[in-house]
Amino acid sequence: MPRWWSFTQRPNFLMYDIALLLHIYQPPTQYPEILREIAETSYRPLMRVLKETPRARVTLNICGSLTEQLEHLGYQDILSDIRLLVEDGKVVLTGSAKYHPLLPKLPPQEIKHQIQLNQETNERLLGRFEPQGFFLPELAYTFHVGRLIEQMGFTWLIVEDLAFADEEHRRHDRIYGIEGTKLNVIFRDRLLSLGIAFGSHKSPESFLKSLEAKGEEGYSVLAMDGETFGHHHRGAMDLLMGLLSLPEINWLTVPSLLKKYETKREDVNVLPSTWGLMEVGPRQERIFPRWDNPDNPLHVKQWQLFYLALSVMMRCNADQEGYLMARAVFDKAVHSDQFFWAGGDPCWHPGMVERGASLLCRAVEQSPSAFPEEKEKARVLVREIVGLGKKLFGEKIILE
């Protein structure tokens, strides 16, 4: 047992209320061998830590794209562990969009469709699934997306803290709502979250010092990829267990946190945002720096292909022959990872980019409403995307 799992109580002992939200997801184009590695090094150990740590309380988003792949690859034990943790009250699940698209890029009917797909898949594989909270893929928020999520019955969502229009006056002793809706909004503590996600904190004590240095009363919300633990950082699973065992921290699920602080509530303006805003600081006009950078010619061509596939799909009628097959392909093809891996700042994955483009092309080719010239245009764009990407960034995968 690492020596830092036990702590002497400080003279001025304080309890910090913290909610931890973990997001686990894999795109439909993921290589099976990579998913198996992630399942073995991250998902299984993560479930074990949550089961074995008495004070663990986590809010978990798992997209239907991942639950389906885990079932297909035989990882029913991970799905069973999630069900058990939910039953024990250690984990609360959120809703999301099944294939992890950037929701502001989709029309309302497609957003609803992705959310319904996620609901159906997770209900089938995880049992009773009635989430009140919603996880926005890439934390991509706009007001019209938030309003639609409210209409679908969700009561809260989480966004990046840079989305708070008046950040200097944000308080941590109250709950905020989104102006013009009844939705509660939780703001991710970006600096604390990134300190863990990027490996700056090597021990629970290091994290605790950062928490104390903030000097703020109330609560904090951490949100990051669940793959941070065990996959992105091999030794981070011990860190997670140490964090969840800290006597100074009262770990809460987001619903428990909302209930505890609900007596103070204030509506605020929430800005369009993603958790990629960390790369551009106050330049909030660049909302999608990792996924839609206008200075990246590869992104420009990817979005041309995306909107070609979307326009073709929007013309389809559900009773047309071949519609269901094309629809199933398109649903998967809108995932956000293909754009992330084409960012080149620094990440680049030629295989994932080509797989994403090919899936969008296949959706066009299989659509009963596509014209021959649109099918040819899609094929040309795939070739241009692959060729341009390799010209810009090379043949090899770049991770950092």
Q: Can you walk me through this structure?
A:
It is a single chain. Residues 1-13 and 278-284 have low confidence and may be disordered. The chain starts with 15 loop residues before the first strand and ends in a 7-residue tail after the last helix. Strands 1, 2, 3, 8 and 9 form a five-stranded parallel β-sheet that branches. A five-stranded mixed β-sheet has the order 4-5-7-6-10, with helices on both faces. 44% of the residues lie in helices and 12% in strands. Helix 1 (32-52) runs parallel beside helix 3 (76-87) and helix 10 (297-314) runs antiparallel to helix 11 (323-333). The chain has helices at residues 32-52, 64-72, 76-87, 108-126, 143-151, 190-197, 204-214, 236-244, 254-260, 297-314, 323-333, 337-340, 350-366, 372-393; strands at 16-24, 58-62, 91-93, 133-134, 156-160, 175-178, 184-188, 219-225, 249-252, 265-268. A hairpin with a 5-residue loop joins strand 6 and strand 7. With 400 residues, it is α/β, with parallel strands linked by helices. It folds into two domains: 3-279, Alpha-Beta Barrel (7-stranded beta/alpha barrel); 297-393.
